[in-house]
Design goal:
The chain is of the alpha/beta class. It has helices at 26-31, 40-63, 74-79, 81-89, 109-127, 148-154, 191-194, 209-225, 236-239, 242-258, 266-279, 297-300, and strands at residues 14-21, 68-72, 93-96, 133-134, 159-160, 170-174, 177-181, 196-197, 202-203, 229-234, 261-263, 286-288. Strand 6 (170-174) and strand 7 (177-181) form a beta hairpin.
Length: 305
């Protein structure tokens, strides 16, 4: 079903990346800029992220020596340095997730560039290196603007992971150049399975961890069968809760026991994919941007012709 599978290291059948969006309470301040301080319950929900969930997650994955990628807004890095120090101390990747939990679709190109550079500099100062990858912050929508990919290419990012256009990594090209896209899968986002919170406008039926892990396991089995890639988009205040976090360990063991799995950070995956492209061992699918340069005429002029 994947006609052009990527040759993974050591003959692995699939790559697995556990990624976490460490938003903390940034989204509360963006959603409620005038009175976030009054949304105390929601602040407590999201502050659970760096204060309780991050140490627990690091302990869990540390026992299995699995590298993680944490997509972290610059504001979170500045506001919760102890949690960031734990991530860095454990050798995990810190990737770009904006500054606050803003929406790129509601900004000018210059505003988006300024925030991108601001987040990059914060990560460089704390880690000693520029971030390799980027995931757009989302506020009730997927905030990739017509400028986002061009700006990532312009600023020298190695990979993006904000789009949904394939089952395996592919290449995005534009007038600015090219960048590797490591696509997301909507159902591998824990927010969609667990989150029911009025202040964020999410009213999902809350599932049991067993049911959610059944979904994640099915997607892994398909990735393994067809030599693809499995990547989750998880959030510490969601999947870092006791029962949900406890349910992750049997999933890890299942993946390990199945074998022929490469557990890697997103930066490691991007480096490997780029290396097999450069060597000629694999040719990626190329997606050319922009998809459209303006709204289509039929929307602007709905009269029949």
């Amino acid at each position: 079903m994947i006609k052009n599978p990527i040759p993974w290291p050591n003959g692995a059948r699939c790559a697995v990346a556990f990624t976490w969006d460490v938003d903390a309470d940034s989204a509360v301040h963006v959603n409620y800029p005038d009175n976030a301080d009054n949304h105390v319950a929601t602040l407590s929900l999201m502050r659970y992220d760096p204060e309780v969930a991050i140490p627990r997650i690091l302990d869990l994955f540390g026992r299995h020596e699995i590298p993680l990628t944490f997509f972290t807004p610059g504001w979170t890095i500045e506001s919760y340095p102890a949690a960031i120090d734990l991530m860095i101390g454990a050798g995990h990747e810190i990737a770009h997730h904006g500054y606050l939990h803003h929406d790129n679709n509601n900004m000018s190109r210059q505003q988006e560039l300024d925030i991108l550079c601001q987040g990059t500099e914060i990560i460089r100062k704390i880690t000693g290196n520029r971030p390799l990858g980027y995931r757009t912050p989302n506020i009730r929508s997927n905030g990739v603007s017509r400028n986002t990919i061009d700006l990532l290419i312009q600023e020298g990012f190695v990979y993006d992971t904000s789009l949904f256009g394939d089952d395996i990594p592919y290449v995005l090209t534009s007038g600015q150049g090219s960048i590797l896209e490591i696509p997301c899968l909507h159902g591998l986002d824990d927010w969609k399975h667990y989150m029911n919170w009025r202040d964020f406008g999410y009213h999902m039926p809350v599932s049991t961890p067993a049911r959610v892990m059944e979904f994640f396991k099915a997607e892994f089995d398909a990735a393994w069968e067809y030599r693809g890639m499995w990547m989750c988009v998880w959030h510490p205040p969601v999947s870092g809760r006791l029962a949900r976090c406890a349910a992750i360990e049997p999933l890890i063991r299942y993946m390990q026991e199945k074998g022929d799995v490469w557990f890697a950070s997103m930066g490691e995956i991007a480096a490997h994919v780029n290396s097999v492209i450069e060597s000629g061992d694999w040719k990626p699918r190329i997606d050319r941007l922009p998809y459209w340069v303006s709204p289509i005429a039929a929307v602007q002029d709905p009269q029949p012709r």
